[in-house]
Amino acid sequence: MQPRNMSMSGVVDLAAVKAAQEAKAKAEQARAEAARQGGGGAVSPADLVIDVDEAGFERDVLQRSTEVPVVIDFWAEWCEPCKQLSPVLERLAVEYDGRFLLAKIDVDANQMLMQQFGIQGIPAVFAVVAGQALPLFQGAAGEAQIRQTLDQLVQVAEQRFGLTGLTVDPEAEPGGAAPAAASEVPAGPYDALLEAAVQALDSGDLGGAVQAYKNVLAEDPGNPEAKLGLAQAELLQRVQGLDPQRVRAEAAEKPGDAQAQITAADLDLVGGHVEDAFGRLIETVRRTAGDERESARVRLLELFEVVGADDPRVVAARRALARALF
Questions:
Q1: Inter-CA distances, 97 with 49, 68, 135, 167, 261, Å
Q2: Catalytic residue numbers?
Q3: Are residues 228 and 250 in the same domain?
Q4: What is the rounded CA–CA span in Å between residue 265 and residue 273?
Q5: What is the rounded distance in angstroms from the CA atom of residue 121 to the CA atom of residue 140?
Q6: Structural domain that includes position 201
Q7: Are strands 124-129 and 132-138 parallel, antiparallel or unpaired?
């Protein structure tokens, strides 16, 4: 029941990679099965806002987050700012027409969930996407800010996890469709190969994971799960066995050594220092020429793949790279 930490920024996290792959595959398969059966599965607008407690958290939040982003509103009856924020979120849940589900959690009655999310004050708003929890905002927020945050959430959920949300039917009876069971969904053509890659990652067999993802890409070069998985598995393979202190010391001593900076950038990214990794390689591109410059540029593009093209830091780094090159 405990939420796992994740950021929309795409910091490397094997648990998040696995969950994202599984969630996206299940969502795509569920939609295909619904289409094959002639649609169905629509929910009433009233079902877009639900009350959740600790007993139902896994079913109502974690499981539902594999088909739709779940926004969590932590509130309490005595909290005056909550009384201002909650109606706005409820209205937007209906207005966004199934692109996210709003789960309301009373912190007084569910203090364990409050502790697990590390909430220090309310109102606090989180999201869960493909089983991964991320903070959205805390305290009072204007509607324009809320809309901007929700727009980013639904965009990332669709682009990175394939979650396009729920089908809403104003004529549907409240309390209708539940998530499709995984056992009812036909397997996709590359499920076995992708599962082999995930199992290899779980066991620490990075070479096996790399090969499994390459096997998928050999048949389907545009497969998004395999492309992301391969980029991350290769990154983890490169840093395996490195001495971080030695790598960073060498990079500090040799600022003009492209390979030293490339290796340090890999460590930066695995450690979650995304902007440091990008900045290091952009500066290397600026300082070097020829093959060294090209090596730094190519590695930077590979790290962009790991983080995700929709990440604002990737967008900013692409602009900085263009300036460094031209």
A1: 11, 11, 22, 8, 47
A2: 79, 82
A3: no
A4: 9
A5: 11
A6: 190-239
A7: antiparallel
Q: Give the amino acid at 166.
A: L
Domain identity same for 217 and 281:
no
Copy the structure tokens of residue 231: 């980029």
Residue with tokens 């982003």: 69
Q: Which residue has the tokens 């290769």?
A: 234
pLDDT in tens, 255-296: 999 999 999 999 999 888 889 999 999 999 999 999 999 999
Two tokens at 73? 């509103």
Do residues 280 and 267 make contact, with C-beta atoms less than 8 angstroms apart? no
| Tens-place pLDDT, residues 141-199 | 889 999 999 999 998 888 777 788 888 888 777 775 444 444 444 445 667 778 888 78
- Which ranges in 43-98 belong to alpha helices (H)? 57, 80-95
Taking the C-alpha atoms of residue 94 and residue 92, their distance in angstroms, rounded to an integer, is 5
CA angle 31, 308, 143 (to 5 degrees): 75
User: Residue 302 — φ and ψ, nearest 5°?
Assistant: -65, -40
CATH number at 81 reads: 3.40.30.10
In a domain, 17, yes or no: no
Beta-strand relationship, 70-75 and 49-51: unpaired
- Phi, psi at 234, each rounded to 5°: -65, -40
**272 to 12, 97, 266, 278, 280: CA distances (angstroms):** 7, 34, 10, 11, 14
